[in-house]
Amino acid sequence: MLAEMLMFIQLLGMATLAAILPTIGVMCVIYLAYTYKLQIWWFVKGIMRGVCWLIICLVDGKTKANSIKVKKVVNDNN
After folding, report:
1. Average pLDDT for the chain
2. What is the pTM of this model?
3. Which residues contact 48 (CB under 8 A, 6 or more apart)?
4. What is the full DSSP assignment across the chain?
5. Distance of alpha carbon 31 from alpha carbon 71, whole angstroms
């Protein structure tokens, strides 16, 4: 009987952790995304530029990919 009660308590603890830990994780991700959104956006833009360069390189060749100039848009609201 004691072992069954302990197993039930352990099951309740695992269910509680299964419900609470993902919630805390999602809240942390939202907080970090809101706090560091400019750095995250800069990183995403860099990845997109790299992927675009790779696609152009594969389709048209490396010299064509290197010759393309990216026009920088100055926008303080990013």
Report:
1. 84
2. 0.48
3. none
4. -HHHHHHHHHHHHHHHHHHHHHHHHHHHHHHHHHHTHHHHHHHHHHHHHHHHHHHHHHHH-HHHHHHPPPPP---TT-
5. 32
